[in-house]
Structure formats: C-alpha cells, structure tokens
Write a structure and sequence with these properties.
It is built from 9 helices and no strands. By secondary structure, the protein is an all-alpha fold. α1 packs across α3 and α3 packs parallel to α7.
Length: 223
C-alpha cells in the first residue's frame, strides 16, 4: 500500500500541475520530490509547485480518515500547495476580481467568497448523502472551481478536494491525464456557461475514476 501511495503521489502531482502549464515531466517531478534535486533550465516556481503539491497530497491521506470536510481543510490544502510561491496568499481567499482565460464565466467578486465557501461546506453532508460518491466528488470539484476562492491554484485545490472525498468513500486516487485537458476544460465550461448542466463534468470524472480503478487493479496484480 505504501508503494501505491508513493506511485500516485508522483502521478497526481505531475498531472495536476501539468494541466496548469507546469513544465516538469513526470520523471523530473519524481526527481524533485524524491531526491530534492532541481532540474536545470526549469522555472523555480515549477519546482515549488511540485514540492507543495506533494505536501498537500500527504494531507489528503490524513484527512481521508475523517468523514467530514471543513472550510479549514480546504484552505489548508491550498496553503500547503502555495506557501512557497506566495506566503501571503497561501490559504487566503482572494481580495480582487479575476477573469478566467478562455472562458466566458466570471467568478464571484471577493466580497461574496466567504459566504459562498461557508455554504459550500455546510451543504457537503446533505449533498454527499443525496449523490453517489463519484457524482459527489465531481460536483464538489465543480463548485469550488466556480467560486474560484483563491488568487491562484484553484484547479489544483479542486482536484485535491475531489480526491479527498473519493478516498473518504473508499475509492482510489484519480488522475486526470494532461492529454485530456481540453475534454476536462470543456466539461467544466459546459457546467458553468454553455449548457449549465452537471452531466458533462459528472460523466468526465466518472470515466476518470473508472480508469483509475482499472489502473489500481493492474498495479495490485503487478505487486
């Protein structure tokens, strides 16, 4: 189990960062995390993102022992990922308006974020009870991305949160491969702007979880 945990640490860190433009390859991500060696010619920020995501990954395993998610848990996941990059904004809600490149969706203004996050967390128990665990993970991911509470790192925090609730329900770590970035973004955009339907993002995440389960069984057989 420890071998599998370390395997997914590299896979999830690499893929989640690569979806946001991080230039480290999967092998380079492994070298940075496991050996503490910098990669020549690669931005220092890319190294910080790998190290921070690895720490946040450990945190979701610790939190998976619980059956609840608090607002502090979400803020702490962002803090662990982001504190090397910008200590002042790590784990803190944004104080400025933002726009999302390539999307017509406009996230809520900063003044609304605290109330929206409190509602998100308060709604978690009843939403979790209403939906299948995989559907719930997709919807929670979608809602956090829509609120866009942080200055940067919202997508990675949403994917960490998604995996946290999957682990809490007995599922395995689920990776979204960078090659599927366009499909992933398209599913989010449809939920936010175009059709305003949750079906595309639920179907996409369900497919990713299904593939993750198959990969997990392959690894178990190999071990």
């Amino acid at each position: 189990m420890e071998k599998l945990k370390e395997y997914y640490r590299i896979g999830l860190t690499y893929s989640s960062n690569a979806l946001e433009g991080n230039s480290l390859t999967e092998t380079e991500t492994k070298i940075v995390i496991e050996d503490g060696i910098t990669i020549g010619g690669k931005p220092i920020r890319d190294h910080y993102e790998a190290m921070g995501h690895s720490e946040a990954y450990d945190q979701i395993y610790s939190l998976a022992k619980n059956k609840e998610v608090t607002e502090g848990d979400i803020k702490n996941l962002h803090r662990l990922f982001y504190y090397r990059i910008n200590l002042n904004n790590a784990g803190q809600y944004r104080k400025e308006k933002v726009i999302i490149a390539g999307s017509e969706f406009i996230p809520p203004p900063p003044s609304e974020i605290p109330a929206l996050m409190k509602k998100l967390v308060l709604d978690i128990p009843k939403v979790r009870e209403k939906y299948h665990p995989v559907e719930f993970s997709a919807l929670l991911h979608k809602e956090l991305v829509a609120i866009h509470p942080f200055t940067d790192g919202n997508g990675r925090t949403a994917r960490l949160l998604m995996n946290l609730v999957l682990l809490q329900s007995g599922y395995v770590v689920t990776i979204i491969p960078p090659i599927l970035r366009n499909d992933y973004i398209d599913a989010i955009k449809k939920a936010q702007v175009e059709s305003k339907s949750d079906t595309p993002i639920i179907n996409f995440i369900s497919t990713m979880v299904h593939e993750a389960m198959k990969d997990y069984m392959r690894l178990l057989n190999a071990l």
